[in-house]
Design brief:
single chain; 193 residues; alpha/beta; Rossmann fold; 7-stranded mixed β-sheet; 6 helices; globular; binds S-adenosylmethionine
Length: 193
Amino acid sequence: MDYTYDADNRIRKMFLMSDIMSKKTVCDIGCGKQQAKPILKELNPAAEYVGFDLYDHCPDTIVCDFNNSDYPPPQSNCQSETLTLLSGVLEYIYTRKLRRFISFIASISDACVLSYVHSDVRGSKGKIWVNDLSQIDILRLFRRAGFRLSAQCLHTMRDGTLLHGGGGCLYYFEKLHRWQKRHSLWRAMRLWL
Ligand SMILES: C[S@@+](CC[C@H](N)C(=O)[O-])C[C@H]1O[C@@H](n2cnc3c(N)ncnc32)[C@H](O)[C@@H]1O
C-alpha cells in the first residue's frame, strides 16, 4: 500500500467533511512534507497553517515527539475556530500516551478531523503501528477530552476502492460547548426518568 498515493485525496476529503471554510487556523500534526498546506490554501486561502512533526522535512515545521514529553508550548493563534488535522498519524502514538495526546489537541483546537485504520476490520495490524483502537475506543478518547462526533465515513481511495478492506475510517469531532453539555445532560436525564 502506497500511503503517499492517496494522501492528497484523503486530506481533501478530511477538509471537506470538517467545514474548512469556517476555520481560521489548521494545526497539522504529523504533517510530514506538509502535503496538506497547498490543499488548505486552495480551499481556504485565508486560513493559517501550522505543521508539527517528528522530523523537520519543511523548515517551518514545529519539531516535537508526541510519544515523548517534548510537547510544544501553547500556540497563541490556536483554540477558537482551529482545526487539528491528524492524517495518517494516530496509528503511531503509543496507547499509554493517547489520553495526553488528545488532551493536547483539545488544548489547541475546538475541532479535530482524523483518519484511522482499524485493525479489527482489516484483520491484521500495520507492522509499524503502535496502537490498536476500535471505533468505540476512538469515540471514548475524544469524548473524554470534550469532543463529540459530528461526522464519520469509510475512507475510499481515488479509484473508489475501500482503504484496507473497509478498515480505513475518517472522523470529524467538534468540542462540546457548555450549553451543549447541559443539553446532553438534560436529554440523558429525561431518557432515564
Ligand atoms: C504516514 S505519515 C503521514 C504524513 C501526512 N500527514 C499524510 O497524511 O500524508 C506519518 C507522519 O507522522 C509523523 N509522526 C510519527 N510519529 C510521530 C510522533 N511521535 N510525533 C510527531 N510526529 C510523528 C511521521 O514523522 C510522519 O511524517
